[in-house]
């Protein structure tokens, strides 16, 4: 998966950019929806031969100037541009995701401080490392050791999440952005899901990269017999950039807030 990550990313991104997005005319009888290699090269101000070497993995060290030009040519936003730079010039030290059972006690103390909130801590590979009681009673993954993608690709999740594919697509985009491409845990997870889940394979091949730090989720909770709509916010866990705390909460005085309060009694 980390083999020719740069070339794979460039190829996937150019296939999603329409000529009209970058000011190119739409030709009659055009056979491709995205950009041709020579069009990306021209927009980026580099030779077609050099761009071909980048996609094929025969040149893996483009300059910052070339990367910035490619980002403009491919209409990459700030997050996607940062990802492009990271895979072209990986940090010298790996940043592998912590595994379940490896957290310090301080993280659990930090999690317990979120009152009337359903909260959990995930690694950069989306392994669930800590869960508070409210979250365990609302969400399908339930206990430490689950991976969020294994939870999403269950019949229960498909049935209970009204915007199921949106959840999966958002998770895959965040997985690419957060996780070290050389992490063995990422290889194992993605390799398994590519074989088992066609929907994952289809979305993974798009090479989308994004980071959403807040939103609103609705899920049907069988134990409560009702749909629960909660706001959520992702927060960095102090002292470990590879950990993310996801807190689900409700506005005071709402029925959802009362449900969260009652789950803690």
Overview of this structure, please?
This protein is of the alpha+beta class and 265 residues long. The chain has 2 domains: 5-88, Orthogonal Bundle (434 Repressor (Amino-terminal Domain)); 105-263, Beta-Lactamase (2-Layer Sandwich). Helices cover 44% and strands 15% of the residues. It has 13 helices and 5 strands. It has helices spanning 5-14, 37-44, 48-56, 64-73, 78-88, 105-112, 133-138, 148-152, 155-160, 164-178, 184-196, 198-204, 255-263, and strands at 118-123, 128-131, 214-221, 226-237, 240-249. It has a 5-stranded antiparallel beta sheet. A hairpin with a 4-residue loop joins strand 1 (118-123) and strand 2 (128-131). Helix 2 (37-44) packs across helix 4 (64-73), helix 4 runs antiparallel to helix 5 (78-88) and helix 11 crosses helix 12 (198-204). The longest helix is centred in the middle third of the chain and has 15 residues, at 164-178. The protein starts with a helix and ends with a helix. The model has no long low-confidence stretch (mean pLDDT 89).
Concise account of the structure shown:
With 265 residues, the protein is of the alpha+beta class. Helices cover 44% and strands 15% of the residues.
């Amino acid at each position: 998966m980390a083999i020719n990550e740069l070339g794979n990313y460039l190829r996937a991104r150019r296939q999603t950019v329409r000529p009209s997005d970058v000011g190119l005319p739409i030709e009659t009888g055009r056979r491709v929806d995205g950009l041709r290699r020579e069009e990306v090269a021209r927009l980026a101000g580099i030779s077609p031969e050099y761009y071909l070497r980048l996609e094929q993995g025969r040149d893996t060290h483009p300059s910052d100037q070339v990367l910035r030009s490619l980002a403009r040519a491919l209409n990459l936003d700030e997050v996607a541009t940062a990802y492009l730079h990271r895979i072209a010039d990986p940090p010298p030290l790996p940043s592998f995701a912590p595994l379940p059972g490896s957290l310090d006690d301080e993280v659990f103390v930090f999690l317990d401080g979120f009152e009337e909130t359903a909260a959990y801590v995930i690694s950069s590979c989306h392994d669930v490392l800590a869960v508070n009681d409210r979250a365990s009673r609302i969400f399908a993954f339930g206990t430490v050791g689950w991976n969020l993608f294994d939870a999403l690709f269950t019949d229960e999740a498909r049935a209970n999440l009204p915007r199921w594919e949106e959840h999966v697509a958002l998770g895959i985009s965040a997985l690419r952005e957060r996780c070290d491409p050389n992490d063995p845990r990422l290889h194992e997870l993605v390799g398994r899901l590519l074989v088992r889940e066609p929907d994952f394979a289809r979305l993974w091949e798009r090479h989308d990269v994004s980071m959403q730090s807040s939103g609103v989720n609705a899920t049907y909770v069988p134990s409560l017999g009702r749909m629960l709509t909660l706001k959520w916010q992702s927060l960095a866990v102090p002292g470990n950039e590879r950990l993310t705390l996801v807190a689900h909460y409700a506005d005071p005085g709402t029925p959802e807030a009362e449900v969260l309060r009652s789950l803690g009694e």
